[in-house]
Specification:
The chain has 18 helices and 15 strands. By secondary structure, it is of the alpha/beta class. It has two domains: about 220 residues, Rossmann fold; about 220 residues, Rossmann fold (3-Layer(aba) Sandwich), CATH 3.40.50.2000. The strands form three sheets. The chain has a seven-stranded parallel beta sheet, sandwiched between helices. Strands 12-11-10-13-14-15 form a six-stranded parallel beta sheet, sandwiched between helices. A two-stranded antiparallel sheet has the order 8-9. Helix 5 links the parallel strand 4 and strand 5. Helix 1 packs across helix 4. The chain is globular. It comes from Lentinula raphanica. Pfam families: Glyco_trans_1_4.
Length: about 525
């Protein structure tokens, strides 16, 4: 299938989902008005919340953090969404959290043509969510928190359930659903107009609106005249995100040895290692052992079980011959142009090869570029990348999926982060950059409208506009790696700009950098604990 044909099919699917969602929602509403099993509005359960994620729960970090915060504040928390990825450990540990996984359509339907299958899938989706909110959640929850987008049909479903059960609706505005549709269809297309009307109509009135940026709040308040409390809750990393020690990096890459060995492109590229004594990034050799050898051999003897003291065991250290580890987290969607990164890596490969042929001290290291995440464009871009890097000497790019417990450690092990997020609306911010900052990782970020709310060029990261600028930033920051003065200076500056204040004044108009918990407790906790009359 050509890219043009694939794009056409995707457009057809998107359009069909919009129309089918509206039709099925109307049918569901007509059915529900006759149901009599529902409890009266006045009998909803205090200190309870249903969090609706129309997607993989494990791939929705902001909503998982919401769930953790609600549960830690005494709320019975029901998280409703699809399975697939493992959620953060807290959601499986906290006694007040229940994960309610929506069922997938029967496998038998998958053999049907899409035109026939799509209506069944939409009906199944709508009825599954309504079943969880109206039947399986016996007592009506005090709050229903819904992530937007997707807007259709979730905004209308929670609006309807709120009317029936008396639950207070909270909308977390990550982005604008209709703006994502504009990536596939012209702005004047009837279905874009329908999607915008749907989002504005069912999203306008809520108990509270949460926004990821000031720009998002200002735009929606002006354009849609939102009704309800309006809160800007910038993404912040969880408190356990941090810069990793050599021991933590060693432990992680010991665990990753098997998955990394499956990449043929990494053979003869990474330094030789022998787990558990060494990894491509760490080893247990004393620093003096490799100071005069450019390519040391890592074949260590096992640690003696009869060693008289623990001090005789050499702790891991970062290898001087390691490649620079770069990481980019992406959902592989059209609002993140992976082609920019691919072109920048191509330019870096050419530049590194050119410098390696001279006697100049200006040298560049090898790069291991790890792209985390799953999404529709992954196979297309990685196929192209594998074709290019077959002849490369200095760069390798792999796509890797990390579970929730390993992801922050991987970020805390990396040398540089890359953000390709451009925002379909221009009013949301990439959470991946927040996570990277929480792990002390400087970032090169693609420029767009409200990026300065998060990335301060030259202070906590660098901003680029195209692949040429990104390639130049790679060269600037990685020269003489691992002893790169510019990269070290950026790390130091990042530490200063994200250093948490010991005491955050409740009356301060300046938002300090803090953990997710501190930020949530400061901005959202007063509203959900004490309530606000609208």
């Amino acid at each position: 299938m050509t890219m043009t044909t694939a794009s056409s099919v995707e457009n057809d699917r998107t359009i069909f989902h919009v129309v089918s969602g509206i039709v099925c929602l109307w049918i569901s509403y007509k059915i529900l008005v006759f149901l009599r099993f529902l409890k009266p509005k006045s009998e909803h359960s205090l200190r309870s919340v249903a969090i609706v994620v129309l997607g993989d729960i494990g791939r929705s970090p902001r909503m998982m953090y919401h769930a953790e915060s609600f549960a830690e504040n005494g709320f019975m928390t029901y998280v409703i969404g699809y399975g697939g990825s493992k959620p953060i450990p807290a959601l499986e540990r906290l006694p007040k959290v229940e994960l309610r996984y929506l069922s997938e359509p029967p496998a038998l339907l998958s053999s049907l043509p899409f035109v026939i299958l799509a209506p069944f899938k939409i009906i199944h989706q709508v009825t599954s969510i309504l079943r969880e909110l109206l039947i399986y959640t016996g007592e009506p929850p005090e709050y229903i928190l819904v992530q937007n987008p997707p807007s259709i049909p979730t905004l209308a479903i929670v609006w309807l359930v709120g009317k029936i059960r008396g639950s207070k609706i909270i909308i977390d505005w990550h982005n604008l659903g209709y703006s994502i549709l504009e990536l596939k269809l012209p702005k004047t297309h009837p279905y874009v107009k329908i999607a915008k009307w749907f989002e504005a109509t069912f999203g306008r009135i809520a108990y509270a609106h949460i926004f990821v940026t000031e720009a998002m709040r200002n735009y929606l308040v002006e354009e849609w005249n939102l009704v309800g409390e309006k809160i800007v809750l910038h993404d912040r990393p969880p408190k356990h995100f941090h810069r990793c020690s050599a021991q933590e990096i060693h432990d992680l890459f010991t665990r990753l040895q098997t998955p990394l060995s499956q990449y043929k492109s990494l053979q003869n590229f990474l330094p030789e290692s022998t787990t558990p004594f060494s990894t491509p990034l760490t080893d247990r050799k004393p620093s003096s052992d490799s100071s005069t050898a450019p390519s040391p051999t890592y074949t260590l003897d096992p640690i003696s079980t009869t060693a008289p003291t623990y001090e005789n065991v050499q702790p891991p250290r970062l290898r001087p011959d390691r490649p620079a580890l770069l990481v980019s987290s992406t959902s592989w969607t059209p609002d993140e142009d992976f082609g920019i990164l691919l072109d920048a890596l191509t330019q870096y490969e050419q530049r590194a090869d050119e410098l390696s042929r001279t006697n100049d001290d200006h040298k560049l290291p090898r790069i291991l570029m790890a792209v985390t995440g799953k999404g529709p464009q992954r196979d297309q871009y990685m196929k192209r990348m594998n074709q290019l890097q077959a002849d490369w000497r200095w760069v390798r790019c792999i796509s890797i999926w990390l579970e929730a417990e390993d992801y922050p450690t991987f970020l805390g092990s990396a040398d540089l982060g890359v953000s390709l997020h451009s925002s379909s609306s221009g009013r949301d911010l990439p959470m991946k950059v927040v996570d990277m900052f929480g792990c002390g990782l400087p970032v090169c970020a693609l420029n767009f409208q409200c990026l300065p709310e998060l990335v301060k060029d030259g202070k906590n990261g660098l901003v680029f506009n195209n692949s040429n600028e990104l390639a130049q930033q790679f060269e600037l920051l990685l020269e003489s790696f691992p002893s790169s003065e510019r990269l070290d200076a950026l790390r130091t500056s990042l530490r200063r700009t994200t250093q948490r204040s010991e005491e955050i004044s409740q009356n301060s108009q300046i938002e300090e950098w803090c953990s997710w918990d501190e930020n949530w407790n400061r901005h959202l906790k007063p509203i959900i604990l004490h309530g606000i009359r609208i």
